[in-house]
Amino acid sequence: MRVNDALCALWVMGCFLGTTFPVGCGGPEALKLNPPPLFDEENDGPDIEAEIEPALEEPRGNESAAISLETVLIGCFAFDNACRPLQGVTVSSGQGDIAVTDDTGFVVLPTTVQADTVVIKFQKAGFVTETKLVNLLSGDAPFAEMVMRPGTASYTLDDPGDGGTVNFDRGSITFSPNAFEGMNTLAMSQLTVKVRTIDVTSNDILTAPGDFSGVDESGANVWLNTFGMISVELENNFGGPVYFSKGAKVDMELLLPETIEMAEGTVIPAWHFDEAEGKWVEEGEWTVAPWSRHPEKMAARTTVKHFSWWNIDYPMEVTCIRGTVRLCDGSPAVKTQVLAAGNDYFTVLAASTDEDGAFCVLARVNSSVTVSTTIFDGTSLLTTAETIKTPSTPGTCGGENCYHVELSLPCEGEPGYTDKKILCSR
């Protein structure tokens, strides 16, 4: 990932991660969750007045805030990929709470929670369904901002009872005969297969669900280095859900990045995204083989029993990067997102600064990593980045083996928030 990409990545990740929000994401630290105006007052554009009070007290030190069953208000903004407010986006949580954005692209989603995080889903006909993990322990009122991309590629499967193969730009899905329930009904006479893949070599990786944390087959928590992701949804002839029959077999093939070299037969763990927990869960494996359509390229193949987000990942050994972020006057940059973007691997991890401007972020050991941050000072985007080589010794943020880096933001930056050029630069 190039430095410029990392800076753009930081801006988007600050918005997409949903933990502690930089001011540039419409963060409540400076705006008190009055969402930023989309137009100048001179243009008589819409002005958003909704104010959301913080729902949780800020945890003290490293203590985990105990969250009981309660209703939390989450401010949600949706834009199209031209940065225009997007009306009619259905925003929902895993708890069944639903709201719809207005003509300013904004809605307040009351959601009942009893955990540290909640997964927010953005849906609108003609657009990719997006999800974002929102951290409720930031001490700020939760806020979720999403750029919606034009819809997933859709394919038709005629006579689904006979099975068949759907080919898309970066792979294929093959259904076995009699893979679905209710095959003798009119609703199942034809299926729509919706496919979305993520190019992990680009900033598209920032639209991935979750934060690259996972749970392996042993139940251990791990951090993941991804090589590709795919989401598949099925609809019947009437737009309703489709259910696999018992023992159904569905084979998936996904093209691997050309920048990596893997031998045929290499086995990589497979992971699906658990929306309720906001984590990747190990289930099965991928096997590297020549791509069926272009054998000179390598792909990964797996067999699945259900559809959701699927990921090709190895758990990675991590170390820690500690440091501080300061404004140009030397004062600490408080509650600012910091990214650690791999240059020789694909994962991007994030952290947030505390009241002293200090942070600790994880990254893969013995790797080239760009550490960067971006804030909005009210008129300009201020960005800074430094590329480092991480230690070969594993480390945790509670340990002593962290690499140290100091980040200083410039006094002047690039205008960007009002037209959201940075947010839409993906």
Number of helices in the DSSP assignment: 2
Gyration radius over CA: 22 Å
Overall pLDDT metric:
78
Distance between the termini: 13 Å
Biggest sheet architecture? 5 strands, mixed, barrel
**Structural class designation:** mainly beta
Total count of strands: 25
Low-pLDDT regions = 1-67, 415-426
Global shape: globular
Characteristics of this structure?
disordered N terminus; five-stranded mixed β-barrel; 4% helix; four-stranded antiparallel β-sheet; globular; mainly beta; 426 residues; 25 strands; 42% strand
Briefly characterize the structure:
The protein has 426 residues and is mostly beta strands. Helices cover 4% and strands 42% of the residues. It starts with a helix and ends in an 18-residue tail after the last strand.
Overall description:
4% of the residues lie in helices and 42% in strands. With 426 residues, the protein is mainly β. The strands form five sheets. The chain has a five-stranded mixed barrel with strand order 12-13-18-15-16. Strand 16 and strand 17 form a beta hairpin.
Describe the SSE topology.
Elements: H1 3-17, H2 28-31, E1 70-80, E2 90-93, E3 98-100, E4 106-113, E5 117-123, E6 130-135, E7 143-148, E8 153-158, E9 164-168, E10 171-175, E11 190-198, E12 213-215, E13 221-235, E14 250-255, E15 267-274, E16 279-290, E17 298-304, E18 309-316, E19 318-326, E20 337-342, E21 348-352, E22 358-364, E23 368-376, E24 381-389, E25 403-408
Parallel strand pairs: 1-7, 12-16, 19-25
Antiparallel strand pairs: 1-4, 2-3, 2-5, 5-6, 8-11, 9-10, 10-14, 11-13, 12-13, 13-18, 14-17, 15-16, 15-18, 16-17, 19-22, 20-21, 20-23, 23-24
